Amino acid sequence: MNTKKMWFKLAGVIADNLPTVSQDCPACGQAKIDFQYVGEKKAMRGFLCIWCTSCLHGIHISGVRIPDHAEFLPKDQVELIKKRIPNFKAG
Ligand SMILES: [Zn+2]
């Protein structure tokens, strides 16, 4: 499986295991995965960022459904989002 596919697979694992995830990073193999949903409460849609706090690789997946029990940031809280989600590299 290529790295991109592994990140997408991880998105499914995260949605199924909220609120925590302990998975290995597809890029470096360390169990340092963090994630954040961002979106709108009314629609419960938005995007999901998943990244590794060790190597700062990750993925941004847009157009996701936010699970009912997921914690998410409102998408207009730009400063909060910037603080929460590091500037990671794709892949
Ligand atoms: Zn990593």
Strand content: 25-35%
Percent helix, as a range, is 10-25%
Following the backbone from N to C, one meets helices and strands in this order, namely: HEEEEHE
Structure classification: alpha/beta
What topology, given as strand order, has the largest sheet? 4-1-2-3-5
Number of strands: 5
Task: State the shape.
Answer: globular
Tally of structural domains = 1
Please provide a written account of the structure.
With 91 residues, this protein is of the alpha/beta class. It has one domain (3-85). It is 23% helix and 33% strand. It contains two helices and five strands, in the order αββββαβ. It has helices at 3-16, 78-84; strands spanning 33-40, 45-52, 57-65, 72-74, 89-90. It has a five-stranded mixed sheet with strand order 4-1-2-3-5, with helices on both faces. β2 (45-52) and β3 form a beta hairpin. The two termini are 13 Å apart. The model has no long low-confidence stretch (mean pLDDT 96). The structure holds zinc ion.
Describe the secondary structure blueprint for this structure:
Blueprint: H1 3-16, E1 33-40, E2 45-52, E3 57-65, E4 72-74, H2 78-84, E5 89-90
Parallel strand pairs: 1-4, 3-5
Antiparallel strand pairs: 1-2, 2-3
Bound molecules: zinc ion.
The site of zinc ion has 9 residues, from loops.
